[in-house]
Amino acid sequence: MNTGNRKKLIILGIIIVIVIIIIISLSILLNSEKQKLPNIVANETNTQQENIKEEEEEEKIDVSKYYAVTNLVRQYYGALDKEKYILSDGTNYAEEEGVKESIYSLLSTEYIEKNNVEIDNIYEKVSDINETITFVPLKMQCSEGIGVDKFLVYGSLIYMNSQNLENIFIYVNIDYINQTFSIEPINEKYNDIEEIKLDNTIDSIEKNNFNSFSEKQMTEEEISKEKFNDFKLLILRKSEDLYNSLNEEYRNKKFGSYEEYEKYIDNNYDRLSTISITKYQVNEYNDYTQYVCLDKENGYYIFRDFNNGESEIILDTYTIDLPEFLEKYNKAEDEQKVGYNIEKFVSAINEEDYKYAYNVLDESFKQKNMPSQADFEKFVKDNLYANNTVEHNDVEKQGNLFVYTITLKNANNESEQKELTVIMKLEEETDFVMSFSIN
Hints:
By secondary structure, the chain is α+β, with helices and mostly antiparallel strands. It folds into three domains: 63-195, Nuclear Transport Factor 2, Chain: A (Roll); 220-315; 345-438, Nuclear Transport Factor 2, Chain: A. Helix content is 39%, strand content 25%. It contains 15 helices and twelve strands. The strands form three sheets. The chain has a four-stranded antiparallel sheet with strand order 1-2-3-4. It has a four-stranded antiparallel sheet with strand order 5-6-7-8, with helices on one face. Strand 9 and strand 10 form a beta hairpin. It starts with a helix and ends with a strand.
């Protein structure tokens, strides 16, 4: 073989090798992308994969990271709290210089330089806190950097020794390489998080004795408890942000106005101040993740985190028809539907939602037995229990009516019980009217 042909074969061989390398690389890349897809849809229920939107959506902050940032804000305000350094006898167990140093060490270099912060003048440059407080997050934005992420946080400072609430904005910087963080208070007044710039120019955060950070993945139980506890703190202080975060249809139907929401809290304050989570369930849907919490009196609290970063809250399972309920209700026989509606009625009584319970009563029954909602409320308080559980007995259809006998038990003392006869008419969709008598 002459030299020219040998060179051609060598060149041809090199080209073939390059083509093979390109094909292998593309194959690896495509397989890699395919392996990422199941992570998006693996936990979805009640949806089909073909409904997943292919266009990019705004990336939301991971829920574990969301609460990690929240805890850093709480750590900062905990350092500011002068009360926690005072013993019951009034003596201070921490040296003032040490406390000042710990606060100074949490502030970002940029904030220190911009505001001429020194350890000696620290209390002139940060909030003056003389009461135990905690922080509840409401909104959060993130600007990702190479090694440092900058978070703009909006939330409520909750004063634990009073009913006070104060809304604040604050920056949190996290250095994932050095495992450190820093804080930048926002002293200017703003009405909305969209009014504030989020520029990330920080390259790194130097480590000191106070600013260590470590990532931790939260369990579903921990997330559910965080959401429930934050809700409790906000509702007891009649937070307008909480009111506005309620599902719109639910908010309008349940309350209709902020004033009615305030009345609801006043009327249910004793119950709301003692609620605690006993069970939880987490469901993944196509558009959102839903956290369902149950309290000791079987009250439901539903938290939805949407894929676009928005969130909403629903405080019961009867005011509006949830997708899960509709799916179950539409497949049920009429006798089962009557049972579901009785559960709604009893849940409303347990929640002291006399407006809902009174509105589902038959008009002629109301006029004859309890002409006003106040009359109905008095009847319930005099004759039923504060927390009722339902035991379904017999059901009989009479024309277009269903006659259902149930046993109401006192959830706090199950030896106490009463038998009721419920007469119900099913109407369009999930509507119904009913009357009842105590046997």
